[in-house]
Design goal:
Order of helices and strands: HHH
Largest sheet: none
Shape: flat
Distance between the termini: 35 Å
Structural class: mainly alpha
Length: 66
């Protein structure tokens, strides 16, 4: 396997950190709803996002077990 240039590795490392530290669309939606409409609306959206994520992972696990 060829070695990776240091400049490529550093660029990849910086991009990985930037992507992992930036909030996703769901987090931005929950924060925006919480700031604009109060705690309950933000909490409801966050709960919905967690529920949907759990359902997606459970579907994926059951589909891959077949």
């Amino acid at each position: 396997m060829p070695a990776m240039d240091l400049s490529v590795w550093l660029t990849f490392f910086a991009a990985a950190w930037a992507i992992s530290l930036s909030p996703g669309a769901g987090a931005v939606a929950a924060m925006s709803a919480g700031l604009n409409h109060g705690f309950r609306r933000g909490y409801t959206i966050a709960f919905g996002l967690i529920t949907a994520s759990g359902r997606r992972w459970s579907w994926w696990a059951s589909a891959s077990a077949r």
